[in-house]
Every structure is written in C-alpha cells, then in structure tokens.
C-alpha cells in the first residue's frame, strides 16, 4: 500500500479564494481534535495559519456551514501556512450559501 494522500480532486490552486478568519476544530485519526485557524477558503480547499501539526498527505475532517463534514488533505506547507485540498469540489451554489453564513457583511461576500 502506498503512503500519502490519494487526491481525487485535480490541483486547482487558481480557484478564487475567499478571505476568512475562522477558528475550526478538525478531526485527525491520530491526533484527535486539532485547532485550525482558517484564513482563506475556496471550492477546492483552504489555507490555515499557525504552527503546522500535520504533514503533507495527512487528512483532516472539518465541518462547514451548508456543506457539513468534508475531508481535506495537506498538499503544501510553507512556514506557518498550510494548504489543504478538499476530497471533492464544493458546488458553487453551496459555497455561496456557506460564505453568506460565514460573512454577514454583504460588501465582503462573493459577487455573482
């Protein structure tokens, strides 16, 4: 059996990112609950800031408004920033509803 993540979503780092400031608790199979400071999110993944506790290829499950539980894989680490890729792409309409829940200020929401 090969190690590391077997990502099913194509690497789409050019996806539009939405800036957020979310303290989330992720579930990791070995570490249990891990605190994640999410600083941006897109339909394909998210970025966290803080001392990395996970290595490349490790998986964590988070719970997002409108989306529910979704697993993501660490795809890169750069200093105190870590990039995660979702196991699947979030539909744009679900993503827009999630951003509306996360960002009550209408000036900062996605433009359609």
Please explain how this structure is put together.
The chain is mainly beta and 112 residues long. It has one domain (18-104): Beta Barrel (Thrombin, subunit H), CATH 2.40.10. The protein contains 1 helix and 6 strands; from the N terminus they run ββββββα. The protein has a 6-stranded antiparallel beta sheet with strand order 1-2-3-6-5-4. The protein is globular.
What would you say about this model in short?
This protein is 10% helix and 44% strand.
CATH fold type: Thrombin, subunit H
Strand content: 35-45%
Q: Looking across the biggest beta sheet, what order are the strands in?
A: 1-2-3-6-5-4
Relevant CATH superfamily: predicted glycosyltransferase like domains
Q: What is the C-level CATH assignment?
A: Mainly Beta
Tally of structural domains: 1
Residues in helices, as a percent range: under 10%
> What radius of gyration results from the CA coordinates?
14 Å
Layout of SSEs?
Elements: E1 18-28, E2 32-41, E3 45-49, E4 59-64, E5 68-78, E6 81-86, H1 92-102
Antiparallel strand pairs: 1-2, 2-3, 3-6, 4-5, 5-6
Main features:
single chain; globular; 112 residues; 6-stranded antiparallel sheet; mainly beta
